[in-house]
Design goal:
- By secondary structure, the protein is α/β, with parallel strands linked by helices.
- Among the domains are: 83 residues, Flavocytochrome B2, Chain A, domain 1, CATH 3.10.120; 172 residues, no CATH class.
- Helix content is 54%, strand content 7%.
- The protein contains 19 helices and nine strands.
- A five-stranded mixed beta sheet has the order 1-5-4-3-2. It has a two-stranded antiparallel ribbon with strand order 6-7.
- A hairpin with a 4-residue loop joins strand 6 and strand 7.
- Helix 10 packs across helix 13 and helix 10 packs across helix 18.
- The C terminus is likely disordered.
Length: 447
């Protein structure tokens, strides 16, 4: 029976790696996911990034065992020639199976309930303080509470994008739109589109959107070659203006993080107004409109423009802590240029991530990002299970000589600023000329 199977080589599989022709290998079987790409819940980028290669580890990481039954309709009838599984992949898949048997993917604890309760209390207190108090300090304190609210809503949005935080798909979707679109003004569709691409192509300079912050930040001098972003489908030009901004990025990092929400608002608007296919676009737009009704109205209830501006700045700045947290896990980690490799899933995920060491009572502050290595290897694991599996992940890394890097929150900040400073000083090196413009000339004219 085995002799009757039809086989194709890895080289032949690799030819099916572009829009309109997407094939992947899972457990040695070849699947044509070309037509499925537009309907894929995780978005098109993960399939584009892993097409033409073995995607078994990524599939196992992102899908429960029940997902295999849906693969048959995509089966091409071909099998991958000389298909083999590395020792690290065997142990990784064994861990996924063990976690599943232990029920860890289903045991979500009460994190979501506590977080939603905290969000509700923060919202009520903030609104009450603005409407019922005449004190400027109370108003500014409410702005800080609003920032904390957005941080906690961000954790809910992040979790719900990876697994069901609620009892059903419908309620889970409601939690996503409520926490992301309605309360924070950020499209959950944009978040999933961006974040899934980041997970699959972790720390690839040209495929991972979470490292593509030109002209404000670069984490590697390789960006000076004006790399092409395969996520945004455009060239990231390192011109004179970029050189100037990057040259001082280690000083501008925290101020920019204080206003980083503006970029998330803009990204949400651009996606929802684009011709790109967006699932449940109506819900997404409606949720965004809800935010842009209640938040400006709340700000308008403040007595004068000075307090209104300060309220917005404080609420944005407090939320900037979360934007910093997103950067700490990856900015100082290993980066590379090129296509993500499905056969190097564990290697790429561990090299591109950094854990933050903290006591268990601080887990609420980090929202699961303190176990970034565990989260990247097992993205479906509920936040409350990450600390439990950490020793097993460390054992996997030790056995297969994979990095398991961790640092304190303050040390991670120091490492991130160090990475930015190194790239900034390299950008100032005029031995790497770039086309000059009037802005560059103005800032570099002497006497």
């Amino acid at each position: 029976m085995a002799e009757s199977r039809r086989y194709i080589s890895q080289e032949e599989l690799g030819k099916h790696n572009k829009r309109g022709d997407l094939w992947v290998s899972i457990q040695g079987k070849i699947y044509d996911v070309t037509d499925w790409a537009k309907d894929h819940p995780g978005g098109e980028p993960p399939l584009l990034n892993l097409s033409g290669q073995d995607a078994t580890d990524a599939f196992v990481a992102y899908h429960p065992g029940t997902a295999y039954q849906y693969l048959d309709k995509f089966f091409t009838g071909y099998y991958l020639q000389d298909y083999s599984v590395s020792e690290v992949s065997k142990d990784y898949r064994k861990l996924v199976s063990e976690f599943s048997q232990m029920g860890l993917f289903d045991k979500k604890g009460h994190v979501t309930l506590y977080t939603l309760t905290a969000i509700a209390i923060l919202f009520v207190v903030s609104v009450y303080g603005i409407l019922r108090s005449d004190s400027m300090w109370v108003h500014l304190g409410c702005g800080a509470l609003m920032g904390v609210l957005w941080i906690q809503s961000g954790w809910i949005g992040h979790d719900s994008g990876h697994y069901k935080v609620m009892s059903s798909t419908g309620i889970n979707r409601f939690a996503q739109v409520l926490s992301g679109n309605c309360l924070a003004g950020i499209s959950i569709a944009w978040w999933k589109w961006n974040h899934n691409a980041h997970h699959i192509a972790c720390n690839s300079l040209d495929f991972d959107p979470d490292l593509q912050h030109m002209p404000f930040f670069v984490v590697s001098s390789k960006f000076f070659n004006s790399l092409t972003s395969y996520f945004y489908d455009r060239k990231l030009n390192f011109d004179s203006a970029s050189r100037f901004l990057v040259s001082y990025q280690h000083w501008s990092f925290y101020p920019v993080m204080c206003l980083a929400r503006i970029n998330l608002f803009a990204q949400s608007f651009m996606l929802l107004s684009s011709k790109r296919r967006v699932a449940n676009r109506g819900q997404e737009v409606l949720g965004i409109l809800v935010f842009w009704i209640w938040y400006p109205f709340l700000v308008s209830c403040l007595p004068n423009w000075g307090e209104r501006i300060m309220f917005v700045i404080i609420s944005f700045s407090v939320t900037g802590i979360q934007h910093v947290q997103f950067c700490l896990n990856h900015f100082s980690s290993n980066v590379y240029v090129g296509h993500p490799s499905g056969n190097e899933w564990c290697d790429k995920q561990t090299k591109g991530t950094l854990d933050i060491t903290c006591p268990s009572w601080m887990d609420w502050f980090h929202g699961g990002l303190q176990f970034q290595i565990e989260h990247h290897l097992f993205p479906r694991l509920p936040r409350c299970q990450l600390r439990k599996v950490s020793p097993m992940v460390q054992e996997l890394c030790k056995k297969h000589n994979l990095p398991y890097n961790s640092a304190s929150f303050w040390k991670a900040n120091e490492m991130t600023i160090g990475t930015l400073r190194t790239a900034a000083l390299q950008a100032r090196d005029l031995a790497n000329p770039v086309p000059k413009n009037m802005v560059w000339e103005a800032f570099n004219t002497h006497g």
